[in-house]
Design a protein that fits this description.
Layout (H helix, E strand, L loop, with lengths): L9 H4 L16 H11 L4 E5 L6 H11 L2 E7 H7 L2 H26 L23 H13 L3 E7 L8 H13 L3 H4 L3 E7 L4 H5 L5 H5 L2 E3 L8 H15 L3 E2 L3 H12 L3 H17 L3 E2 L1 H15 L1 H10 L9 H11 L4 E2 L1 H11 L1 H4 L6 H8 L7 E3 L6 E3 L2 H10 E4 L2 E4 L5
Parallel strand pairs: 1-4, 1-5, 2-3, 3-4, 6-7
Antiparallel strand pairs: 8-10, 9-10, 11-12
Length: 416
């Protein structure tokens, strides 16, 4: 029998919003994978943190699959919506009970018994709700389903409840409860996933930080991809798998993609998908026009609101130097996450030597303005008199929509 394999489509290769790990474009991150894997065998519960889109979910899903770890995810958005962590547990359990009820009916009618779940020998429920409180019922369900596998409950999207004292306290209670012999007997580990650093400190606001911090281990930050990792992802998807051809200097092409996406894994995949679709319309060729069209469509979908924020903070009228525009542009060109006014001033003088030669720059004042008001572009850090961009997408917006022409900051040809 002849088996015909179809040519892969862009959406088969670039899957930015996929809940499951796409093995075609998973770029190994051995140090982080090792840290997470080692943490699973240690006594502390784990914290995975990093900016949105950097690949936290794919990281833990890949490691858990590789290490045969059973896990259930509690989306903390649901806890926020329903008003408590217990309500989110009840929602998870009720959905599983509905699934078991369906399997039970199948078992009665056709003798089907998937995974041993459903009916025992006398036709009664094997899983009885009992009088346990919601967290213990969740642990009981996870342990029953996992069998002898290692098991984890993942609290995901922590940033959604980080300012909700009640839910934070409930999560802290769960961490402490797992030291109680009754709860510890289930042998289940908690993994907390979110964007903020210092999650242990946030959880300890209503209690003793030592009580929480000694029970949690924070693995190193899941940061944006390195240039090597980001380029590998894009080259693998566009050229190796989809067989698209890059015209001109491919290094310049990849450098631009890495710059405007800030090497955020999610945005690299979003832009890669747009580029691939545009290239297929043009005989599978990627040239400058193809890239510009793809970038414009990506920007409208991913960073349009942030482009509006940047535009709203730029000088409203043409001035000789447009110092604020220089500040905004320089902040976007810095590679470091946090910076001081001295870092920005140094960058401005390097980028705009003619208009800054022998001139005193009020960079600290401009940065202060950019960190205030509605939709600030910067966040002032509580320590070190430093700033950081309000979001990585602010950096993407600056790099996408602004350029330097004749010594002045100008809009690019890409329309957003």
């Amino acid at each position: 029998m002849i088996i015909y394999s179809r040519e892969p489509k862009p959406e088969d290769v670039f899957t930015p919003r996929s809940a499951s790990v796409n093995p075609k474009l998973y770029i190994p991150r051995p140090d982080l994978e090792e840290e997470l894997s080692d943490g699973l065998s240690e006594s502390q519960h784990l914290v995975i943190f990093g900016e949105s889109g950097n690949g936290k979910s794919w990281l833990y899903k890949k490691v858990f699959k590789e290490k045969a770890v059973f896990y259930e995810v509690i989306n903390l958005v649901l806890a926020s919506t329903l008003g408590s962590l217990g309500a989110a547990f009840d929602d998870k359990l009720s959905r599983q009970e509905q699934l078991e009820q369906k399997e039970y009916e199948l078992a009665k009618s056709g003798g089907f018994k998937p995974g041993g779940v459903g009916v025992d020998f006398d036709g009664t429920w094997r899983y009885v709700k009992g009088k346990k409180e919601p967290f213990e019922r969740l642990l009981a369900y996870i342990r029953k389903t996992a069998g002898r596998q290692r098991a984890v409950v993942v609290f995901d999207n922590f940033e959604q409840i980080s300012t909700n004292e009640d839910v934070c306290k409930q999560i802290a209670n769960c961490v402490v409860l797992l030291d109680d012999p009754v709860y510890a007997d289930y042998d289940i580990k908690i993994v907390i996933v979110g964007t903020p650093s210092g999650i242990d400190e946030i959880l300890s606001r209503n209690g003793n930080i030592q009580t929480i911090s000694t029970r949690l281990k924070e693995i190193p930050e899941v940061e944006r991809m390195t240039p090597k990792e980001a380029k590998l992802l894009m080259r693998l998807g566009l050229e190796d798998i989809l067989k698209l051809k890059v015209l001109g200097n491919s290094q310049v092409f990849y450098d631009r993609m890495l710059s405007i996406t800030d090497r955020i894994a999610l945005e690299l995949q979003e832009l890669g998908l747009r580029i691939a679709k545009e290239a297929i319309k043009k005989d599978r060729i990627i040239d400058q026009n193809t890239l510009n069209r793809a970038v414009s469509k990506w920007a409208k979908n991913s960073i349009r609101a942030y482009c509006s924020m940047v535009a709203g903070r730029m000088n409203s009228r043409e001035t000789k130097t447009s110092r604020r525009n220089q500040c905004i542009y320089a902040c976007g060109m810095l590679d470091r996450e946090s910076f001081t006014y001295k870092d920005v001033e140094k960058k401005i003088r390097k980028l705009f030597p003619e208009s800054t030669n022998g001139v005193t720059l009020n960079v600290s004042g401009e940065l202060a303005k950019l960190s205030k008001g509605d939709n600030p572009l910067l966040k002032r850090l509580p320590t070190d008199d430093a700033y950081r961009l309000a979001s990585p997408k602010v950096r993407m917006a600056i790099r996408t929509m602004l350029t330097v022409v004749d010594g002045k900051v100008s809009r690019t040809v890409v329309e957003v």
